[in-house]
Design brief:
Elements lengths: L1 H22 L5 H10 L3 E2 L3 H13 L5 E8 H12 L10 E10 L5 E9 L2 H12 L7 E5 L2 E9 L5 E9 L2 E8 L4 H10 L10
Length: about 200
């Protein structure tokens, strides 16, 4: 009887541990959209609409305003090709879903986020390696909850603070960039996903 109770306890413990691991090991478009809606970012239906907001918020630095779009298939590919990879510095990888946002804080700092799901996990990994290479020297890398990350926080030549976070889970990649002293937009997003924020690098 004691042996049976011990076996049941072990099974229950493993069930709880595996359940917790599963909950903390994903980069979900739904979670990101819920976060952005909670923050009252403007929702865009078409890539062209988002690109317009992007130019306004990031280019003109309209303070305390944000916008986002979640899309699939051709629209998701347009976000990757036209917004993220507009200068062609990264390979032409195929994506199946994209969620991206832009925000200008009250201090004039700009914050961007890109969540991409790729057709192939190896493409997500290749982009992670290529992108994170820019921050290896001054940043920190590791794995938490099954998510591989590279985070960095440093002073830019403009005198502003630059924060960068790159997170990989299977076929999904999250990239966060910020140029401002106000780290709350990034910290809050990282908290939603259970990620280590790049702002902690300076601590």
């Amino acid at each position: 009887m004691k042996l049976f109770k011990k076996a049941v306890s072990v099974v229950l413990m493993l069930t709880v541990v595996l359940g917790l691991t599963a909950c903390g090991s994903k980069l979900s478009h739904k979670d990101m959209v819920n976060f952005l809606e909670k923050e009252k970012y403007e929702c865009c239906d078409e890539p062209d609409d988002y690109i317009g907001f992007f130019g306004k918020i990031v280019g003109e630095m309209v303070m305390d305003e944000g916008a986002y779009i979640n899309c699939t298939k051709r629209d998701a590919q347009d976000i990757y090709d036209i917004v993220f990879n507009r200068f062609g510095q990264y390979p032409d990888y195929d994506v199946t879903e994209a969620t991206t946002f832009c925000y200008c804080g009250e201090d004039g700092g700009t914050y961007l986020g890109f969540l991409f799901t790729f057709e192939e996990a190896k493409k997500a990994e290749k982009l992670y390696k290529k992108y994170s290479k820019n921050y290896d020297e001054d940043g920190e890398s590791g794995t938490k909850g099954g998510i591989t990350y590279t985070i960095e926080c440093s002073e830019l030549i403009t005198g502003r603070q630059g924060i960068n976070g790159i997170y990989l889970k299977d076929d999904t990649l999250l990239i966060i960039r910020g140029t401002g002293e106000e780290t709350k937009p990034v910290d809050d997003l990282c908290k939603t996903f259970g990620l280590i924020s790049p702002s902690t690098v300076k601590d």
